Amino acid sequence: MTLERFRAKWIPVRVKKTRQNKNLELRSDSIRTDYALVAPSVELLKPIEDRGGAAQPLLQVSGLTKHFPVRGGLFSPRQTVRAVDDVSFSIAKGETLGIVGESGCGKSTTARLLMHLMTRDSGEILYDGMQAGGALSLRELRRCMQMVFQDSYASLNPRLTIEESIAFGPKVHGMAEAAARALARELLGKVGLRPEVFANRYPHEISGGQRQRVNIARALALSPRLVILDEAVSALDKSVEAQVLNLLADLKREFELTYLFISHDLNVVRYISDRVLVMYLGEVVELGPVDRVWDSPAHPYTRALLAAMPSSDPDRRTEIPPISGDPPNPIDPPAGCRFHTRCPFAEPLCAEATPQLTALDKLGHQAACYMVIPGSGHSHAGAPHQGGKIK
Amino acid sequence: MSAIAEIALQAPRTSKPRGYWTTVGRRLIRDKISMACALILIAIFLSAICAPLLGLSDPYQGSMIRRLRHIGTPGYPLGTDELGRDMLARLIYGGRLSLIVGILPVILAFVIGTSLGLVAGYVGGKVNTAIMRTIDVFYAFPSVLLAIAISGALGGGIVNSIVSLTIVFVPQITRVSESVTTGVRNMDFVEAARASGAGPFTIMRAHMLGNVLGPIFVYATGLISVSMILAAGLSFLGLGTKPPEPEWGLMLNTLRTAIYINPWVAALPGAMIFAVSICFNLLSDGMRSAMDIRN
Predict the structure, then answer these.
(1) What's the pLDDT tens digit per position in A349-365?
(2) Quick check: B193 contacting A, CB < 8 Å?
(3) Per the CB < 8 Å rule, is A157 touching B210?
(4) Which residue range forms the structural domain that includes residue A105?
(5) Residue of A108, A155, A237 to mutate, interface with B, max B Cβ within 10 Å
(6) Is A214:A240 a contact under the CB 8 Å cutoff?
(7) Do A207 and A121 lie in a common domain?
């Protein structure tokens, strides 16, 4: 192999992002990607082959619901927390879907339901058109879908070295010990950690950013097609967060991954996502291409979320709180639109029935608000949903 | 990051990859108190195992005219007991039975209790209720009473007393094991292991066991002294070791009559039990801190 071909194969090419976020300087050169150290002979787990074709969404979720029972007192009735209520969305092959929302709105529960780490009460999850447990066994599904958790320390076994942690998954799926370790070392290189330095360290011996890269390597060890990142960069400081985000972008290109990116950080979601889904109290309130949602948010909650983002311009500081109060108790969510208790545009109609997700344009922008449903009876209905930002 | 720190971070480790237990071993060796305890225990174990090779006098051979000699009597460095038998020989031979009845029930209970607790804690739900409520039934009895009741039902003898002591300790270890397991199973790395497609037994073996073993091990080591004392109690009631077999607990009981005549000799078997149990306790403490690899 000539040097040029070797370089072309193993040295990553940094492609300029077309959509750069002005607020965040994310390009950082301190990330070390020693691809050249990696032997090309490493065995990879064979990914589950594509069965649905390019047009088939990788993940189709419809009517996903999870209610947690809460034990009341001796005489009080049994109550339920409506953590996730009738959530539907799909993820196309190769895209990144961002999920945003306040703490406790059901983002992480959705992730765990998708991973089948929790049983759902109702709803359907189709992976590449197949039902887990039916055409696709749960074991196979777990090779197709992997998850990176928020707490980088708690998600690594303190008794295992990093190499052992990464090699565990492939060994479960029948890879030989030596091959699994070789794969673990290769992946450590891929996430920018030199294997000869880090492979035999324990999780407490490395920093938070390095641990999160280990978690990413562990997720990649099973050759997944979909990676669920549940607040994966939220616990990292800003510079490390930027490195990990760039790493995720590089890995996405190299391994042809699809991401489900859960975060409460709107800047990060905008930077990494193609489409974004906004959740409030276990329900989807808005869904659409990230630029459409950012430029013309349709749901008052989305507008409030975006208005709450601190601006780096001192002349444009946020002086009036865009939204007040805490989210209502999910044990007894408000009837009708769940946001109506905090919504400045709420009208009697909003408390009566739940607005359905309604398409706003042909680009897939949808929102669940009576103001965007023409003829719904709301005084703002029919009016253009652009503008009218909450000041 | 400064250049020096960068170099330090990037420098390959000089040592070969070490396993977890090798690391624990190295840390334990550096702990002086644990090492002293380990040496004392090794000495007691070796003397018990090699007793016939040490050129001691016959531990069963008594003499009416040599009864209750004091410590330091020529020919009897630790004196003689109430039947004129050499205390040194009896203490060393006595270690054989005492260590067996002290340690074996704990090892058996450790294996059974850890597995039960692990399953109860990991599986949870109805399995947990079934196991833990059954355990609670045993918990309702005081451990001495339970040991006597089981030994009485099974009949005397060393094997039966080991069985009864095992049954006494299983609930306690299960309880500890279950509570530690419940704490560990909610951690994200267990979720991650489930998400990688591993079955419950693989997860318990590869991810849970290493994380729950430490506290259970420390608790179980503390039970060794209790086991020796309970075994002594069973012997006293005629349910364990039978005279003239040398065994520390039994010796303590029979020498009790001589406590006003020759208190130092009478206290010797107790001192042995004390030494062994305190060494086990300190060693388990050292093990616990050596296993907490984060320090």
Answers:
(1) 888 888 888 888 888 89
(2) yes
(3) yes
(4) 28-40+57-69+79-273
(5) A155
(6) no
(7) yes
Q: How far is A156 from A136, CA to CA, in rounded Å?
A: 28
Q: Which residues contact A253 (CB under 8 A, 6 or more apart)?
A: A15
Token look-up 């400064």 returns B2
For the ranges A376-385, B204-213, B260-269, the maximum mean pLDDT occurs at B204-213
Among A66, A329, A108, CA closest to B188: A108
Q: Does A199 touch chain B (CB under 8 A)?
A: yes
Task: Indicate whether A1 belongs to any domain.
Answer: no
> To which residue do tokens 């590869």 refer?
B206
In a domain, A379, yes or no: no
> Domain of B228?
21-56+74-291
- Tell me: do A158 and A91 sit in the same domain: yes
Give per-residue pLDDT as tens, A78-94.
788 888 888 999 999 99
Q: A146 CB near a chain B CB, below 8 Å?
A: yes
The pTM assigned to this predicted structure is 0.78
With CA atoms as reference, report the closest residue to A229 among A212, A242, A207, A204.
A212
Q: How much is the pLDDT for A41? A: 62
Query: Would you say the ipTM is above 0.85?
Result: no
